[in-house]
Amino acid sequence: MHLLGTFIKPMHREGIKFVAIFAAVTFVLFLIWPFLGWIGVGLTIWCYYFFRDPERITPSRPGLIVSPADGIVSLIEPAVPPKELGMADTPLTRVSVFMSVFNCHVNRTPIAGEVTAIAYRPGKFLNASLDKASVDNERNSLCIRLPDGQDLAVVQIAGLVARRIVCFIKPGTQMQTGERFGLIRFGSRLDVYLPPNVEPLVSIGQTMVAGETVIAELPTSHDG
Question: Is 134 a catalytic residue?
Answer without folding.
Answer: no
